[in-house]
Amino acid sequence: GSNQLQIDIEGGSSATVDLSSLVGTDDQTASEVNITDAGGNFTATDVEGALSELAAGSTDDQNLTGATLDGSNQLQIDIEGGTSATVDLSSLVGTDDQTASEVNITDAGGNFTATDVEGALSETSRAEPRPLWTYRVWWARTTRRPRR
Fold first, then answer.
1. Count of beta carbons in the 10 Å neighbourhood of residue 30
2. What is the rounded distance in angstroms from the CA atom of residue 60 to the CA atom of residue 86?
3. Exposure of 110 by Cβ count < 10 A (0-12 exposed, 13-18 middle, 19+ buried)?
4. Phi, psi at residue 46, to the nearest 5°?
5. pLDDT score recorded for residue 5
6. How would residue 23 be classed by pLDDT, with cut points 50, 70 and 90?
7. Whole-number pLDDT of residue 92
8. DSSP for residue 115
9. Would the pLDDT of 51 be above 90?
10. Is the pLDDT assigned to residue 133 strictly greater than 80?
11. CB-based contact 76:86 (threshold 8 Å)
12. Measuring CA to CA, how many Å separate 31 from each of 85, 87, 102?
């Protein structure tokens, strides 16, 4: 917090330098920061100019042209005007071994007290089924009988 730099030397006297005058003086803008473009990608010589060139000159409009998964779990992604990439997905085979009790549910309707699939299935199996006569009463009330 004191902005004091102390320099110690073996067998000699220490020196202290007050750096307070430097605090808050780094207020550069991107146009004030020079770049060295070793790759020759920009005509600009500062960061702001290089960023403008990137924004204006973005011509990467390639599309993915295909994705193929073969029988040996190799996924090939094809790109327009580019080289295809292949990924070996074999290490993922057989890794999804969840049980119903490990899969959480969010019951927005408030139908279950359980928070996982196993519990919800258990609750539904214990639910009382509606007696058949309730459906017959409903049917009788909702259908019209022809007059004789």
1. 13
2. 21
3. exposed
4. -130, 165
5. 85
6. confident
7. 81
8. S
9. no
10. no
11. yes
12. 38, 42, 55
Q: What span, in angstroms and rounded, lies between the C-alpha atoms of 69 and 93?
A: 13
Identity of the residue numbered 86: T
**DSSP for 26-87?**
----GGGSB---TT---S-SBHHHHHHHHHHT------EEEEEE-TTSEEEEEETTS--EEE
What pLDDT, in 10s, does the model give residues 74-93?
999 998 888 999 999 888 88
Pairing of strands 64-69, 74-79: antiparallel
Query: pLDDT tens, 64-75?
Result: 899 999 988 899
What pairs with residue 79 in β-bridges?
Answer: 64
CA distances in angstroms from 2 to 8, 13, 21, listed in the order given:
17, 21, 12
Token pair 């959480």 is at which residue? 104
Task: Tell me which residue has tokens 């990137």.
Answer: 54
CB 42 within 8 A of CB 27: no
Structure tokens at 1: 């917090």
- Entry pTM: 0.32
